[in-house]
Amino acid sequence: MLEQRCTWSPGHKIIIATASWLGLEFQLRGPAKVFRKNGS
Predict the structure, then answer these.
(1) Which of 5, 8, 20, 21 could form a disulfide with 12 if both were Cys (CB 3.0 to 4.6 A apart)?
(2) Distance between CA 23 and CA 16 in Å, rounded?
(3) Are residues 24 and 32 in contact, defined by beta-carbon separation less than 8 angstroms?
């Protein structure tokens, strides 16, 4: 995994980092919205 990342271009690293960050955002916001709906 790490070896492949080192060979990728900076552009791909940015895209992957953004995609992974968005994935974390959805994982954090998804359950939060569900809890808010259940709470209220």
Answers:
(1) 8
(2) 10
(3) no
d(CA 24, CA 3): 23
CA pair distance 10, 17, nearest whole angstrom: 10
pLDDT at residue 25 greater than cutoff 80 = yes
Dihedral pair phi/psi, residue 30, rounded to 5°? -55, -65
Residue 2's pLDDT band (cuts 50, 70, 90): low
CA 29 to chain centre: 11
Q: Which amino acid is at 17?
A: A
What residue has token string 């492949």?
4
Quick one: DSSP state of residue 9?
-
